[in-house]
Every structure is written in structure tokens, then in C-alpha cells.
């Protein structure tokens, strides 16, 4: 396994645990999810199950975005009481990070609007 403090070109995400801490907080209209190691990743849900469901997608997007920019990944930190762990599938991250595969931020080839 390659070191996490290297850029994504040095990190093999298929050999890296993509599990990070999540903080769930009650909001006026549901549950907000933030990630201490991924400040750019924020999502929400109607209840805890829905929030954790969306948290996986949100975290996968944040990881893929850092991969596209060649940035490093934070180290795993043990959760504190009341925090949750969210794990993402490395294959999902690779698909999102590859614009040729139709990743979220790189939709691949433009469509022909005939």
C-alpha cells in the first residue's frame, strides 16, 4: 500500500481504506453530515439512515475531486464517541474521478443535440 500523504498518482485507492469520521447534527429540516477530515464534504438527510446514505455519495465525490486535482488524502482518525464511520467503495471513487467514464464533474464527451 502506498502512503496516503502522497498525491493521488502515488495512492492506489483500491489498496487504501476509504473510511472516515462523520458528524451528524440535528438541523431544522433533518440531519446534517460533515466530515472533520474532509471539510468540503457536507450533506444532509431526512433522518439518520437517509443522512448516512447520502454521506457515502458525498464522501466519494470529495475523494474523487481531490484525486482529479492530485491532492493528498487525510489519514484515518479513530471516531470519537457519537461520531460515525462512513466507508466508500474505491471503485465508485475511481469511476467518479475519471471524466472519460462519465464522472460527476467530468461528464465525458458532450452529447450531440440533434
3D architecture notes:
The protein is 26% helix and 24% strand. With 114 residues, the chain is of the alpha+beta class. The chain has one domain (8-96): Double Stranded RNA Binding Domain (2-Layer Sandwich), CATH 3.30.160. The chain has a four-stranded antiparallel sheet, with helices on one face. Helix 1 (48-69) crosses helix 2. Mean pLDDT is 81; it is low at 1-9 and 105-114.
The helical percent reads 25-40%
Strand content: 15-25%
Q: Please state the structural category.
A: alpha+beta
Radius of gyration: 15 Å
User: Which CATH class is shown?
Assistant: Alpha Beta
Mean pLDDT score: 81
SSE sequence, one letter per element = EEEHEH
Point out poorly predicted stretches.
1-9, 105-114
SS summary, helix count: 2
Q: Give the CA-CA distance, first to last residue.
A: 47 Å
Number of strands: 4
CATH architect. name:
2-Layer Sandwich
As laid out across the biggest beta sheet, the strand order is 3-2-1-4
What can be said about the biggest beta sheet?
A: 4 strands, antiparallel
Give me the CATH fold name: Double Stranded RNA Binding Domain
Shape, per Cα inertia axes = globular
Number of domains: 1
Give me the secondary-structure topology.
Layout: E1 19-27, E2 30-35, E3 38-45, H1 48-69, E4 84-87, H2 90-97
Antiparallel strand pairs: 1-2, 1-4, 2-3
Helix pairs in contact: 1-2
Brief overview:
This protein is 26% helix and 24% strand. The protein is of the alpha+beta class. It has one domain (8-96): 2-Layer Sandwich (Double Stranded RNA Binding Domain), CATH 3.30.160.
Amino acid at each position: 500500500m502506498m502512503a496516503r500523504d502522497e498525491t493521488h498518482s502515488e495512492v492506489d485507492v483500491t489498496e487504501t481504506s476509504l473510511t472516515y469520521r462523520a458528524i451528524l447534527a440535528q438541523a431544522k429540516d433533518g440531519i446534517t453530515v460533515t466530515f472533520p477530515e474532509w471539510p468540503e464534504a457536507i450533506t444532509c438527510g431526512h433522518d439518520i439512515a437517509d443522512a448516512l446514505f447520502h454521506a457515502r455519495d458525498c464522501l466519494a465525490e470529495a475523494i474523487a475531486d481531490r484525486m482529479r486535482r492530485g491532492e493528498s488524502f487525510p489519514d484515518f482518525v479513530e471516531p470519537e464517541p457519537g461520531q460515525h464511520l462512513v466507508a466508500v467503495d474505491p471503485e465508485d471513487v475511481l469511476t467518479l474521478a475519471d471524466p472519460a467514464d462519465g464522472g460527476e464533474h467530468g461528464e465525458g464527451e458532450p452529447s450531440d443535440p440533434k
